[in-house]
Amino acid sequence: MLMLEAAQTAMMQALEFGPGELPDGLFAGTRARALTGMKVHANTISHARLVALEDTFPRTRALLGHERFNEHSRRFAALPGVTARTLAHIGTSFPGFLREIGETCAAVDLAEFEWLWLEAYHAAEGQALRLAALAGIDENALLDLTIAQHPAARIIQADRAVHRLIGEEVPGLADADAILIARPEAEVLVSAATSVMAKVFTALEFPESIGNLFASSCEPDCKDQVPPDDYMPALIALLEAGALIQLEQQVG
């Protein structure tokens, strides 16, 4: 009898690549009976995958309609590699799949928004840097402060239809340049963001001091140069949304 881990691997390979991958002796009884059991198991897993996609992308499903969404889901769930994913991660590349098969920009971006929301929900904890924490800090200390994106923060510049759909629940989102997703505490929050906020947030993919952040944005050859008068309000808005964290200064 195979060890548990090897048996589970063999079962997953058989489910993904077909009954030819199922080794003899894995189950008691005849091979025909084992294959029958595997078919039942495969049907159960297939159904679970479809349900998981429905649960992950409810807005996209509503936009496309059940039949169209279900058709896409079945094609996606049968792709090599997708079958090996856990149900929690099965939707990782679903937005990209919708783009590849020629779905509308609205459907693709809505699926992307829903996946980013789920990523934010499951992201690591982080102590959001709030504006109040900067009160009383002198200018030099403020410029030396190293900040970065909060682990649960995401930003997306989506199709206008997505803004309108989500804007029914979030004030100001319908006409916003971007959509900010943040989880400064326990709850995932969605808010409107400006294009400058999106640029500042993107620039903080890697930790950077506030001083260097300002300096790099003002360089003549900077493609995304931001007017100085617009930069600070965008940074403050990101802080108020709980989208940034402070990194401890390295002592050396």
Automatic annotation (TrEMBL):
> What residues form the membrane-spanning segments?
none
Task: Specify whether Transit peptide is a keyword of the entry.
Answer: no
One example GO MF annotation: DNA binding
UniProt keyword list:
DNA-binding
User: Putative DNA-binding domain location, by residue?
Assistant: 8-98
Protein name (Swiss-Prot/TrEMBL): DNA-binding domain-containing protein
